[in-house]
Amino acid sequence: MLFERIVGHNAPKRMLSRVLETGRPFHSYLFWGPEGVGKKFLALHFAQALACPNKLDGCGCSSCKQAEFGVHPDLHLILPEGESIKIGGARTMIEVSTLNPISSPWVVNIVDEADRLTPEAANSLLKLLEEPPSTVVNILITSRPHFLPPTILSRCLPVSFGFLSQKEILRELSEKKVEDAEVISRVASGRMGDALYWARPENWKRRGKYLGTGLQLASGNVSLSASDALLKEKEKRAVTDFLKVLLSLWRDLALLSAGVKEIANIDQEKNLLSLSGERAAEDWVKGCFQIEEVLELSYTTVNMSMLIVSLLISLGQRKTRERSEPFAT
Amino acid sequence: MNYISLYRKWRSQNFDEVLGQEHVTRTLKNAVAKGRIAHAYLFAGPRGTGKTSTARILAKALNCQNGPTADPCLKCRNCEHIKEGTSLDVLEIDAASNRGIDEIRELRERVRFAPVEGRYKVYIIDEVHMLTPEAFNALLKTLEEPPEHVVFILCTTEPQKLPPTILSRCQRFDFRRIPFPLLKERFAQIVEAEGGKIEDGALDMVVQAASGSFRDGESILEQLLAYTGGEITANDARELLGLTEDEWLEKLILAFLDGNYREIFEVIDTLISLGRDPRNISRDIIQFLRQLLAVSVGNPPSTWPERAEKLRVIASQTSTPAILSLLEPLAGLEWQMRSAVEPRYLLEMNLIFSSYRLQERIAGLRPPTAQPATKAQVVSEVKEALKESVPVQEGSDLKISLEEKGVLKETVSPLKRPLAFLEEINLDKLKEYWPSVLEKVKQKSVPTYILLSKGSLTDFLDGQIILTFDRAFSFHKNMVEKGENRLLIEEAIEETLGVKYALKCLLGNGESGESAEEIKNHPLVKQTLDLFEGIITEIKEE
């Protein structure tokens, strides 16, 4: 069976299997969809199967083994150097594409995080993506397709990836015998990467701590010492993790106050139910947008301490609803 | 293994095959036929509209052994070579990867040599906007006065990035997006020629996804053919394109209009579990709403028949302003989702909230004539509300104090399908709502209310609400028109009707004022006439 080890993504898997059956791959693919759902994983397996004489991924033949260890001569993975993929990287890709494949029928180029291509690099790939030598298959991977120039998008066949369903994650977690699998599978919001991250006990413990701060905040107690403690934490992802926990909390509260019961943090259902009535749905939703905004910024190189403090203060306040303003972030 | 993708196989080979660009091809054909060949052309336009193809056709037209001719034979050695990309006289340069000054210098060196097999040396410089400024400037002289046997064709998707000195040296042709019907026809031909079959609905989806670009559409067709083995159904197309099924969209929009948050959430949840990307979902929702808007203002939808039918049904149940007020908060959604860390949450929150706002607006539009709630209900509600602020004495004068506060006039009756009240507003409707506008104004400011109450609503023209004041109340009219009062009133109108209308005040019309006779007989007028021994020549209105 093809792609056995990949969870979910049935539509792309089915499509790619058909392609392997017919042996007629398109020359340039764009794998796009949310971060951390397994796009690159599937791309690597697809490449492996293209190179394999048995048309399988991981059949144990020498080609498959080479691919697994990342030393297959016909599979090229192009990654960002630092913040971007520069024209040098693109030129190397063009060069290797002009050569005949060495041990397989195809030369496969996989560009990960293609949205990080500099404009120069992206443009220099246009010709290769449009009319490559007949033995070349390009796979561009991105979670932010809108950052690629339309000329690139138009030359690639888009393969869209979605989130995994909660059930798929739950099944995988239960197989791995993870504690709290049910809650984790909901909190992971469709990302296998996040689920496995939270499944580690030390991370899950931190989530408990953040949850406490979040609940305090929701009931109107702003504690700035929490933000100090957060910024002092050694864990690099602490701030992002905290914001993600906060966002899922606020979103649950918004859903509850709009009358929807299917929440993510089901272990906190009682607390959340009693809290949700304290503010209008509008308030919770606005909070979500604020958190999301700060969360986006946390991926850039902004000084987070001010942002976090102002976010906490703003979230802690219950807004009065004197006059409804235009709803925008 | 020597498989060639559809869009390369089906590249237009002569001017007549180029889709939807008659304004370009006709000019070029005439130019070739009359021998008026410019030495530099600029082809600009969106991706996949035929720029590179046309450039190659022009090269063939110029170098064909039976030419120069507007209809290259496609059979002679030169045509063949150009088609295969092996011609020595047609040089296709990818400016994006050869963008430096050195490459341009090399080009200038070679320009001087005469063509080998054909009449002209044709330089096709693709993606020309990526040249560096130095490279552009190095090209200027050559571009302006090249040797007689040289034709430059510059192609670009972004002409605005070219320096004006380049633009002014070229004959410019702008390529347009290819219209839907043309694309549809061509795609149908291609599928047939490739030995496949395609459902009409699937074809529509492909055309829609191609959005005017030939290449985009053919890539999709190609993969559909490989995916299905030849028989393409609407479901295949939907799956490959990651489109949301119409049934789900319909459900979502109805839940949207009804303010059924739970259903909104459930639909999104199901779609996400099916592996759909939230950005695809938001794109489809917005597209659907846009088409719904088009239908509701009376435009025929350009989409597949089943959807068109659905759109008509939904449009008949709702109204244009309702659709607009759903679309409005979603306008920024697609943009927001681009960089979102949690696009799913963002989508949920936005949809639920956009629906919430619509409900809020509808609630503000409940007509004052509806069934009033029972007194007991209102009394208990108001007691609750007043508990904190005003101590209310049980029994006694409660009713009067409530009426004074304008509370009893409020209604509590829920409306079955409240959207009906978002219908187009006309004078009658306006008159119906006017009391509640007055009430709103009164709540905001009593003085303004008193001023306004002297005017009467007489007309509704071009989005202007026209108030007429009796001549005796010209002071009131002037005050109402003044900045703060006017703003306050217009605000109240917007809050009540959900739409912004301007206010226009008129002084009582001609007849209702004092008649000319009355003015003549006025003691003051008489006295003035006597004093100055004057006569009345004209009576002017103030």
Task: Fill in the CATH topology of the largest domain in chain B.
Answer: Rossmann fold
Sketch the major β-sheet of chain A.
5 strands, parallel
Write down the overall mean pLDDT of chain A. 85
Number of helices of chain A: 15
Strand content of chain A: 5-15%
Question: N- to C-terminal separation of chain B?
Answer: 90 Å
Tell me roughly what share of residues is in helical segments of chain A.
40-55%
What is the beta-strand fraction of chain B?
A: 5-15%
> What is the makeup of the main sheet of chain B?
5 strands, parallel
Strand order of the largest sheet of chain B: 2-3-4-1-5
* CATH homologous superfamily heading of the largest domain in chain A: P-loop containing nucleotide triphosphate hydrolases
CATH architect. name of the largest domain in chain A: 3-Layer(aba) Sandwich
How is this structure best described in words?
The complex is a heterodimer of chains A (329) and B (542). With 329 residues, chain A is of the alpha/beta class. Chain A folds into two domains: 151 residues, 3-Layer(aba) Sandwich (Rossmann fold), CATH 3.40.50.300; 117 residues, Zinc Finger, Delta Prime, domain 3, CATH 1.20.272.10. In chain A, strand 2, helix 4 and strand 3 form a beta-alpha-beta unit. Chain A is elongated, with a radius of gyration of 23 Å. With 542 residues, chain B is of the alpha/beta class. Chain B folds into five domains: 169 residues, 3-Layer(aba) Sandwich (Rossmann fold); 62 residues, Orthogonal Bundle (Helicase, Ruva Protein, domain 3), CATH 1.10.8; 119 residues, Zinc Finger, Delta Prime, domain 3, CATH 1.20.272.10; 30 residues, no CATH class; 83 residues, GMP Synthetase, Chain A, domain 3 (2-Layer Sandwich), CATH 3.30.300. Chain B is 54% helix and 9% strand. Chain B has 26 helices and ten strands. In chain B, helix 3 packs antiparallel against helix 4. The longest helix of chain B is centred in the middle third of the chain and has 22 residues. The relative contact order of chain B is 0.06. About 8% of the residues of chain B have low confidence. The chains are: A alpha/beta (329), B alpha/beta (542).
